[in-house]
Amino acid sequence: MIAPSNVSKKRLVIVFVIVLIAILALIIRLGYIQIVTGEELKKDALKQWTRGIEIKPKRGIIYDRNGKKLAINISSYTVWASPADIKNPKETAKKVAEVLDMDENIVYEKITKKTNIEKIKQWISKEEAKELRNLNLSGINIVDDNKRFYPYEDFAAYILGFTSIDNDGLYGVEKTYDKYLSGSPGRWVKVTDAKGRQLPYDGERIFEPQDGLNVVLTVDEVIQHFAEKAAKESLITTKAKNVSIIIMEPKTGDILALANLPQYNPNNPREPLDDAKKEEWKNLPQDELEKRWYDMWRNFAINDAYEPGSTFKTIVASAAIEENIANADTKFYCNGFIRDIPGAVLKCSRWYNPHGPQTLKEGMENSCNIVFVELGRKLGKEKLYKYIKAFGFGEPTGIELTGEQGGIIPYNTDIIKEINLATMSYGHGIAVTPMQLINAVSAIANGGNLMQPRLVSHLIDNEGNIVKTNEPKVKRQVISKSTSETMLDMMESVVSKGTGTNAYVPGYRVAGKTGTAQKIIDGKYAPGKYISSFVAVAPANDPKIAVLVILDEPQGIYYGGSVAAPVAGKIIEETLSYLDIKPEFTEEEKKQFEYMEKVPDVRNKTIEEAGKILMEHGFRYTTDTYNISEKSKVIDQFPLPETEVSKGSVIDLYLDEDTKMQQKVIMPNLIGKSREDVINILENLKLKYHFKGKGKAIIQRPEPGTEVDINSIVEVEFSN
């Protein structure tokens, strides 16, 4: 036998190695297919063999804190077609269209699509579903479905939000808790042949959906009702553009109520409630319509920032007391003006009759700007800025709603000039959201702890078992308990003796602070447009609730103490009574109510004459306006003449100078804006206009920043 040559041996080894490598490669490939991509391939194969219809889970219910259902589901049905199983498409389309009141051609187009499954119509009635089932049409399936429904219509709309047609949360708690509320869909699966037709002897399988978890809010339906009722009444009486009310539990940060008016109906969130608006919106182009929708859905309490005005003095005073810069008895002097800031002269609202010597507590009662400018300067910009940040301004509060803003505060202390420090001390030159302000004042009330506002307390399953709990969360300690107590005492005197007397509630110790701030529009203060507010805590000796009332552009009288404080007082009285907190009348209160006096009529008198009459009757008065001359006349007053109030009450006087100012507007900058935007701006300002050309505005007369009469004609030239 001839031994194999070396060449043959080498060839055999090479062949062996190649075969070995090929086997190894096949093993690796097989392992990859089985282990790595096996599940995906199984799913793909299942998709080829089966056809499935999604079964929607029931969306979780939204309850108030006492178990009242605020958002529920109602039973409905959805019609699906399996095109491959439809034997006579024309006849089927005709019958389905008749039952569902649809266009026959549209139905035909849907049921002849080259797809496994096609939705014909969602949310049909029980009667339609029954009629369709009786027809027993091949390839037409009726699946149980459910639809979101808000039984109290527009109630708590800015808390609840709404869902899409597919039951996905789009706004409010519906959006932020969508992953818990939505659940997991089920599936109705059928085995099919290569053409997608259902096999006759296969076993259909139904994978049941898993319902969503139920959400329990911190909101109390009854207290929410108090807030919405008060907001509606206030909107009607003051003709304000918007009214926003928040009620919070200071110790936990729980939101008991949040109302914004005007509001919308979550059952039909794209249609305004106002009939005139509804008619106006019918002819709007789609892009403009969408803009109006977003404007309507804006939650003023968290989406918008405003200058807080004098309500911010509570923050400045808290910082000064905590830093031991001042106490309630520290002396100040108001001569009506601050003149030693380069390039600026600041004045008190009572500059024509200065407050004179007063303590910090009295300065708070009188809401004296001079006191707080001096206090802010003593505190210094570094310390004031530190407390602005510590109280949570400049950052979202973390409430469980979408689109929360952080407000506007200086970026750092380097850009705070002397004039900025002075104006910030009385709440100008800074912008906060209503939620930030009530949360900060709640910290002052609860002993100094800044809480994270809480809107959802826990999640429960359908058996009522608690699945997840959101515990109250302390973000940080901002001030000490002793500073908190001093502040509550000072704020209580604002209501018992100062500018907030209209929030007084017999038997309850109410602490509060008024605020009136001129609005900023297009970067400038807009004459005649104000935001009036009042923030309160009650009872002052054991705070159970904090209330913030904000009126955007009230017509006529606009002082926070006149239009917002009475609203807060009414809410406090109703809420404390509902919470079964008994009123406790002090001896001093009993005596005070023995000396009631009717308010004299001082309308059509000069400010000097009116002041003299009121003081003779034992009343104090305020005008809260800078535009006063000796000839200024009182055109209205609050409370009205003949109203019986306790002696020593503050009477708000509304002067003709305010009306004169409302006849003037500051010309906005129109350059670069489209023709449509310019029309909107000028019509909102009630200015007449004359246009030349199209495109973007390139020339305007008068110039931006010019004060003009509301009857002026504005000329605008556009680029072609």
UniProtKB/TrEMBL annotation:
Query: Could you say which protein family the record assigns here?
Result: Belongs to the transpeptidase family.
Cellular component annotations (GO), alphabetically ordered: plasma membrane
Q: Select a single GO molecular function from the record's annotations and give it.
A: penicillin binding
Question: One Pfam family this chain carries?
Answer: PASTA
Name its cellular compartments. Answer: Membrane
Has the keyword Zinc been applied to this entry? no
Gene3D superfamilies in alphabetical order = 3.30.10.20, 3.30.450.330, DD-peptidase/beta-lactamase superfamily (3.40.710.10), Penicillin-binding protein 2a (Domain 2) (3.90.1310.10)
Membrane is among the record's keywords: yes
Gene source species: Keratinibaculum paraultunense
Q: What's a single GO BP term from this record?
A: cell wall organization
Official protein name in the record: Stage V sporulation protein D (Sporulation-specific penicillin-binding protein)
Q: Where are the transmembrane segments?
A: 12-32
- List the InterPro entries: Beta-lactam/transpept, Beta-lactam/transpept-like, PASTA_dom, PBP_dimer, PBP_dimer_sf, PCN-bd_Tpept
Ranges for domain PASTA: 597-657, 661-720
User: Keyword annotations for this protein?
Assistant: Membrane, Transmembrane, Transmembrane helix
Predominant location category: membrane
